[in-house]
């Protein structure tokens, strides 16, 4: 398998990282981009990323040179011929992805795999027009691809099991932890993370401070609170992801786009990149029960509410099939650096406590959130 050539189309943030992942693991990589500057600068950009690892003592200069020597930049998608796995990480546009695969597919063997790194497009649509649609799968990497262990693997209804197996085997051979999931909007992580932000925004709208919410979550073991995470990624990026998922899920109240998030984007306080955000540049303060004026137990109530909503979303995804509870837990730990997955949290709290938290929230939910906290089937069990 180590001699299998991996093709990468698109040499932006994700494509360059994905090319590095496979080259570092010993695979010959052929890569291209529609824009000449992106092609021309790719080896130097990868060298810079690898040099940082050499400087940090995490990579030998020999390993860096060997990795770079495995990268071959080609001019056009047709030059990716002969690859065993062709991964696209180009612009998030259905027509562009279809047109790209139409140029790559004729040069590949019948048992090769086409993989999309799409975050939001339905796979059946991407596969449309292919001579062998069954060979198309999703391999969804996380940013930065070389550092993030997780890859979400999905197929559409017509994907060949052998294409999924080969995509998994190659990603695992490159050192990734591959979690299978259904072809549903947001796959696992981008969907199951929504309540982390959503409940935090609801708490903000109800009068809590962003610093208090973050402090409560950090005290509970989360590396970053929800608002600091939004500050890191950008409120505009978070809003776009939330709006995309809300639309894809038919506007269900579990994916409600909170006014506080829209207001934040409108204010320009987008987070680190703007110099100020919900919390940034301040560090999160003390956990709320330690802050003057807060009632004892406030931090625990914040954590229980956010975790109840995280558990419930994971429960609804589980009910849709094609994924396991262990898979969701692993994906949330690896994809978001959460200290524990939602089903591990469920085991800690117990289903009766989560049911009662959700019932309480549903009972006082405003009209536009009615149904948001309806418990998933898995919560019916004790
Ligand atoms: N950035 C992330 O955090 C992230 C995470 C997971 C998945 N994704 C997905 O990965 C894909 C790429 O995202 P990105 O952040 O790397 O984007 P990017 O803008 O950094 O890079 C895209 C690259 O594709 C090139 N390109 C555009 N159209 C092309 C075409 N028709 N043929 C060949 N090359 C083309 C561009 O020149 C650019 O270099 C998208 O589908 C995105 O949804 C992104």
Automatic annotation (TrEMBL):
According to UniProt, the name of this protein is 3-hydroxyacyl-CoA dehydrogenase NAD-binding domain-containing protein
All copies of domain 3-hydroxyacyl-CoA dehydrogenase NAD binding, residue ranges:
5-183
Fetch the PROSITE patterns from UniProt: 3HCDH
Q: Which organism is it from?
A: Albidovulum sediminis
Q: Which UniProt keywords apply?
A: Oxidoreductase
A Pfam family of the record is 3HCDH
Q: Which InterPro entries match?
A: 3-OHacyl-CoA_DH_CS, 3-OHacyl-CoA_DH_NAD-bd, 3HC_DH_C, 6-PGluconate_DH-like_C_sf, NAD(P)-bd_dom_sf
Q: Which domain of life is it from?
A: Bacteria
Residues in domain 3-hydroxyacyl-CoA dehydrogenase C-terminal? 186-279, 302-379
